[in-house]
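Researcher: Quick test of sequence recovery. Tokens follow.
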């Protein structure tokens, strides 16, 4: 391997959301953080170098978006996901969650319903509720091993107040990489019932072997015209703090309205380093990403083997993509508060608490494997020692 993903780099001194506020969040500085969805790896050298070069210029005034920005997005999407997109479909957004808010503000009104497929990344709820819209839950079905969409339930519950569906593809936290058949079934319902699909594909580059990420908008022309796809290099290259992402919107009318909302709330201002970072990552980061994926797959295997051998009471929901692992603690027959207390106060490990992911989250915790293997091993040994002492 050319890149050293085993290297441990101190992040506590950088105001890292994951590492620098442990006392505030968990009440204990000794907690090992394995929660927020960023990674403990350095970004590709090419990204660092491009930003260094820009720093050396020394002037950081208001900055426009160069043509090359759009080109690097379209090249990346074609190369990694086989989707041909027009550069004019690409709209800059300062973050994917902002992109979700923009869609809600543009294409629904207060009181309208937006479909979620829980358990789901908690900000999805917040985006809907804080904007005065209502959540229509379409819970995923779980057979103890794998989650699938419940399309019949979706079809049954959509009504005329339902305007948007938030798709999480790949799905955080359950790690599904949706296959073509599922996406086609979803497409049929959404087109028939005129539901706009807002597809959050921020994890779309982190895919394990044997799986393929399919942008839902790429499955048909009709679906392309009915979808806002949100993508970003943030998870892929560990540059979430640069807050630079895109919405890909083939439908001209939808795009126009979306851009109007961007202007309305002043979300059209760029971040110099985000622009530079995105281009460098998409243009030169592929080799790094391919190695990262091998390393993450190694972490996943290490975790699966470790838990099976040492903590068999916990079941791993094997992810097909994402560096987030959904752990099933239900066999322990403890309450959510007891699991939380055990993890934070006994094991001293900071995970994401299952119930925050909504329906289906009870009895689960989410663990982030985007870290050097030695940190993963330390985290798992803390869980093992605690559970084995119960
Ligand atoms: C599914 C999903 N969407 C969006 C985000 C955050 O995106 P951003 O930081 O660009 O708002 C995350 C981060 O964890 C995520 O998991």
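Model:
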């Amino acid at each position: 391997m050319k890149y050293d993903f085993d290297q441990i780099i101190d992040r506590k001194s950088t105001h890292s959301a994951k590492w620098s506020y442990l006392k505030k969040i968990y009440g204990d500085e000794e907690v090992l953080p394995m929660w927020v969805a960023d990674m403990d790896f350095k970004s590709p050298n090419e990204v660092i170098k491009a930003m260094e070069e820009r720093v050396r210029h020394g002037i950081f005034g208001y900055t426009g978006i160069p043509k090359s920005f759009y080109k690097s997005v379209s090249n990346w999407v074609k190369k990694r996901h086989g989707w041909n997109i027009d550069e004019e479909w690409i709209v800059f957004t300062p973050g994917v969650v902002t992109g979700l808010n923009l869609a809600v503000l543009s294409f629904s009104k207060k009181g309208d319903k937006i479909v979620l497929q829980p358990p789901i990344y908690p900000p999805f709820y917040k985006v809907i509720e804080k904007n005065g819209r209502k959540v229509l839950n379409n819970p995923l079905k779980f057979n103890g091993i794998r989650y699938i969409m419940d399309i019949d339930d979706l079809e049954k519950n959509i009504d005329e107040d339902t305007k948007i569906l938030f798709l999480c593809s790949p799905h955080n936290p359950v790690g599904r990489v949706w296959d073509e058949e599922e996406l086609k079934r979803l497409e049929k319902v959404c087109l028939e019932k005129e539901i706009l699909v807002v597809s959050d594909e921020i994890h779309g580059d982190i895919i394990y072997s044997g799986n393929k990420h399919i942008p839902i908008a790429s499955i048909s022309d009709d679906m392309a015209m009915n979808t806002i796809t949100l993508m970003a290099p943030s998870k892929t290259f560990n540059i979430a703090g640069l807050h630079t992402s895109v919405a890909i919107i083939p439908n001209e009318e939808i795009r126009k309205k979306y851009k109007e909302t961007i202007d309305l709330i002043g979300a059209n201002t760029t971040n110099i380093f985000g622009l530079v970072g995105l281009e460098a990552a998409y243009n030169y980061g592929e080799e790094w990403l391919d190695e990262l994926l091998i390393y993450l797959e190694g972490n996943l295997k290490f975790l699966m083997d470790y838990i099976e051998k040492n903590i068999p009471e916990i079941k791993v929901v094997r992810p097909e993509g994402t560096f987030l692992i959904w752990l099933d603690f239900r066999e322990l027959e403890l309450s959510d508060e007891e699991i939380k207390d055990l993890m934070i106060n006994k094991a001293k490990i900071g995970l994401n608490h299952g119930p925050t992911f909504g329906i289906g989250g009870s009895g689960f915790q989410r663990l982030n494997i985007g870290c050097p293997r030695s940190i993963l091993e330390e985290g798992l040994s803390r869980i093992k020692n605690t559970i084995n002492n119960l």
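The mean pLDDT is 97.
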